[in-house]
Amino acid sequence: MATAPNNFILTSLPPLPTEYEEILIDLDTPRPQWYLDINPRGLVPSIKYSLPGIFDEPETLTESAIVAQFLCDTFPSPLLPASKEDPFSALKRARIAFFVDTWSSKIAPFQFQILKAEAGAEKEAKAEECVKVMEREIEPLLVGAGPFFGGSAELTLAEVMTAPFVLRMLSFARDGELMPKSFGEKLEALPNFGKWSKAVLGDGVVRKVYDEKGVVEGTKKRVKQMAAK
Predict the structure, then answer these.
(1) What is the CATH T-level fold of the domain 2-74, as seen in this structure?
(2) Rounded mean pLDDT of 30-37?
(3) Cα 221 from Cα 227, distance rounded (Å)
(4) pTM value > 0.70
């Protein structure tokens, strides 16, 4: 499995009950040829999967969401129950999928929009728009979080798939340059989101793999490069 440093989506998965090799890929340098031979598109992460005796020719899967879902389906854990584990498992899976889809379609696009907005009124307005959408679309889905999605006491796939965005949004707001400080304050003031995000940020796995300073400084560099083009 090839992944990148700080890839919370994959490193937050529980230990897999099978042998595998993890190779880190530096996203700030061109992909080495050996990796392009495996994955010509150069996307990270990717996983080569085979099942000796059943199909020996490895198949390559890419994209964090697809790889994470595949691993959760192959090795069920508290992150995502098997669909027939109990009478409520399929419903839990559907709720998690809907939450992730809502975040991806309604909230995630705001991250880039706020980053590229002009400092001042434009950035503030875009951040305020995001807060309103968060309150309308995400806040109701976090009713009953205890402290994680659906009342779970442990991380679920809902957190695994959305935590990278939550972490970055709040980190960028704390910095104040990439996103307005008021943006983070308003998000944390939302009753359900505030409690849930605090639990996510306080989880040991999240903190272990997230280099806040590196992510913030790296993003500033990329934003400046985009603005210069």
Answers:
(1) Glutaredoxin (3.40.30)
(2) 88
(3) 10
(4) yes
